[in-house]
Amino acid sequence: MPELATFQKQFLDRIDSRDVVGTPLAIYRNTSLFGAMRAIVDSFPTVAMIVGLAAIEALAGRFAEDCPPQSPILANYGAEFADWLGNHAIAADLPYLPSVAAIDRLRVEAHLSADAPEFGLEDLARLTAEEWSRCRVTLHPATRIGWYAMPAPTIWVAHRDPEMSEIEPEWQAEGILMARRAGAVGGYVIGPCEHRILHGLRLGETVGQAELASSRLYPATNISRTVRKFVASGAISSLKMKG
């Protein structure tokens, strides 16, 4: 990755060179588009950490011009921002940035999702292994699962850490689980085994079916530890035992 401060300055210089009236932040003059711009800046804080405040404001202003809000309620605005970034020149310099934006968006969706009962480790402890294996689960409405061709989840989680230092993620595909527990949203990096289990549960497999399929594909993974990880996250709302 390029040195961050240097990249931010170079990128902002490129934005400044665009032939527009005034500055790249001339969007401030329009109250409604300014509100849309602020909504993007607030909804994509990890993108802002990576590119810097001035650059995210400029990007948000351009996005608001290209994709103006369709509603005066801006809490849910920005669904197209990650795809828009993927078509922007910045993606050539920071290819992981659109995926980081997509993860920021998952976090917004998790915050805005409906409340529901939460199934946790204490509930799991009341079940026998056989009972648990026979269960079909309902994921919590806030639960989101993403899979990316590059280590955007590791980059996203690292930037959310206030003690973040330099990171050197392995350049490989990985996923993220976004879940809400007791009102707090958390993001967890997941590997292919966890992704397969969660995907199977979402499609209606029993816990036993999902675990068996995953263990055949990824025999080196500790399935029990994997399951406890996403149960503890708040990803599950309720169970229905298969007869």
UniProtKB/TrEMBL annotation:
Top-level taxon of the source organism: Bacteria
UniProt xrefs under InterPro entries: DUF2063, DUF2063_N_sf
UniProt protein name: Putative DNA-binding domain-containing protein
Pfam families, per the entry: DUF2063
Ranges of residues in domain Putative DNA-binding: 7-85
